[in-house]
Amino acid sequence: MSDENVEIIRRGFETMQRDGWQTLFSMIDPEFELTTPADLAMEPDTYRGEAGLRRYFESFEDAMENIQIVPEGEFLGAGEKVFVPFRLSARGRETGIEATQHAFQVWTMRAGKGLWVEIFASRQRALEAAGLPPDA
């Protein structure tokens, strides 16, 4: 199941880059949650379901443009968990300032759908959350 989950998330990133974040709706569980931590977000929060995912991305679009979330490195699977190193880049709508952030996602899958996404600033914390060894 681990390899299948990795492939689902990989395809999700590819589709999002090509067709926009709205394509993620087809790959999330009805009980989906996305958690942003205080060490990476100005307004840490938990976003639930399709409405939460929409709120998450629309809040970005209010302040930023040219938003890109791009995987950086290998996707790693551990059962129902998928570890993804990524880069978020965008430009401020008002300021024009370019911003880049490197972080890590851990997706928890259920029946081929994304159930929960946690975002981490630390690779080690993300690997631990995914149940992967620290040297993965």
Blueprint of the fold:
Elements (H helix, E strand, L loop, with lengths): L1 H18 L8 E9 L8 E4 H15 E8 L4 E3 L2 E12 L5 E13 L2 E8 L2 H8 L6
Key traits:
about 140 residues, alpha+beta, Nuclear Transport Factor 2, Chain: A, seven-stranded mixed sheet, 3 helices
Account of the protein in words:
The protein has 136 residues and is α+β, with helices and mostly antiparallel strands. The chain has a single domain (2-130), classed as Nuclear Transport Factor 2, Chain: A. 30% of the residues lie in helices and 42% in strands. The chain contains three helices and seven strands, in the order H-E-E-H-E-E-E-E-E-H. Strands 1, 2, 3, 4, 5, 6 and 7 form a seven-stranded mixed β-sheet that branches. The longest helix has 18 residues, at 2-19. The chain is globular. The protein starts with a helix and ends in a 6-residue tail after the last helix. The mean pLDDT is 94.
Question: How would you briefly describe this protein structure?
Answer:
By secondary structure, the chain is an alpha+beta fold.
